[in-house]
Design the sequence.
């Protein structure tokens, strides 16, 4: 998944959590980049017509941005679900984050042919737990 | 660990990550092999024609060989075991329910293109990494580049065949 799609996906999830625009700081935190880097990419998304940025409020995705983000989130869901259900990786969320930049959406589409993803994907993705809510996350959580 | 700057493309950071990516490659090859076999099994040889039958046979053989080469690398790394027997069954079981890819040649083209893209991105991510893997970097890259080259040839071969068909 390319860098732009990773930003779109993060903004989409923050907007979902906040029920409003995503602050640059929150985007930077989620992606573990500097606020300056986040700002630079948000400017690019805005010039590409994928996001609107209001000073002091934050960034909101346009309809086209939402569509792209939703596709990127589906790709991410495929990677998570594949790691969890096919390779039986316990730390599937952490590994999905590490691997997402190397797995292209066309590769994810092929992996998708052997996993059981629901039609409502990616709406079942839970931004809080960073995983599909239909996956049995409890088993994968380390015990406190 | 995330890097500096806007880019979120990260190099392969550990043996474990490398092993995982190679395992994903093995599953992709498994998918290609299984689909080539299933196409051959489910469709009439006469209907497919000699050229497509031989293409499918070669594709399955090549994927099995790629998988073997990847497995050799994975065996030398610190990797979690993966139940390939189970994955083989899963790939076979899922094949019939899949309706997304129409046409044998088109499916085969997707296979080759996807595999090419996968190895190309993987090679870039390894080239960008300064981690010392348990497997020698030169050997690792030469195996992956050779596989990528074969995938590129595969794309060309299927494209030519598709052009002949039309």
Sequence:
């Amino acid at each position: 998944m390319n860098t732009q799609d990773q930003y779109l996906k993060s903004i989409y999830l923050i907007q979902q959590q906040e029920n409003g625009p995503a602050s640059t700081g929150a985007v930077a935190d989620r992606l573990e980049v500097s606020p300056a880097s986040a700002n630079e990419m948000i400017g690019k998304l805005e010039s590409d017509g994928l996001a609107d940025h209001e000073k002091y409020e934050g960034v909101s995705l346009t309809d086209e941005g939402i569509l792209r983000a939703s596709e990127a989130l589906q790709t991410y869901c495929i990677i998570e679900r594949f790691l969890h259900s096919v390779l039986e990786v316990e730390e599937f969320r952490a590994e999905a984050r590490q691997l997402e930049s190397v797995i292209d959406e066309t590769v994810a589409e092929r992996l998708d042919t052997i996993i059981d993803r629901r039609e409502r994907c990616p709406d079942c993705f839970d931004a809080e737990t960073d995983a599909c809510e239909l996956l049995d996350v409890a088993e994968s959580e380390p015990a406190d | 660990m995330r890097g500096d700057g806007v880019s979120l493309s990260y190099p392969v950071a550990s043996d474990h990550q490398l092993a995982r990516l190679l395992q994903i490659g093995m599953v992709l090859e498994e998918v290609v092999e299984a689909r080539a076999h299933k196409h051959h099994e489910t469709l009439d040889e006469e209907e497919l024609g000699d050229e497509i039958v031989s293409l499918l046979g070669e594709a399955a053989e090549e994927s099995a060989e790629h998988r073997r080469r990847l497995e050799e690398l994975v065996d030398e790394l610190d990797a979690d075991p993966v139940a390939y027997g189970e994955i083989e069954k899963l790939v076979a079981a899922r094949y019939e329910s899949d309706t997304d890819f129409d046409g044998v040649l088109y499916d085969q083209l997707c296979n080759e293109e996807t595999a090419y893209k996968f190895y190309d991105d993987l090679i870039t991510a390894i080239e960008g990494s300064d981690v010392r893997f348990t497997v020698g970097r030169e050997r690792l890259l030469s195996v992956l580049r050779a596989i990528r080259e074969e995938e590129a040839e595969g794309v060309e071969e299927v494209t030519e065949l598709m052009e002949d068909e039309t």
User: Anything to note?
Assistant: The interface with chain A takes residues 1-2, 4-10, 12-13, 17, 20-21, 23-24, 27-28, 31, 80, 82-83, 87, 90-91, 94-95, 98, 100-101, 110-111, 113-114, 117-118, 121-122, 125 of chain B (CB under 8 Å). The radius of gyration of chain B is 17 Å.
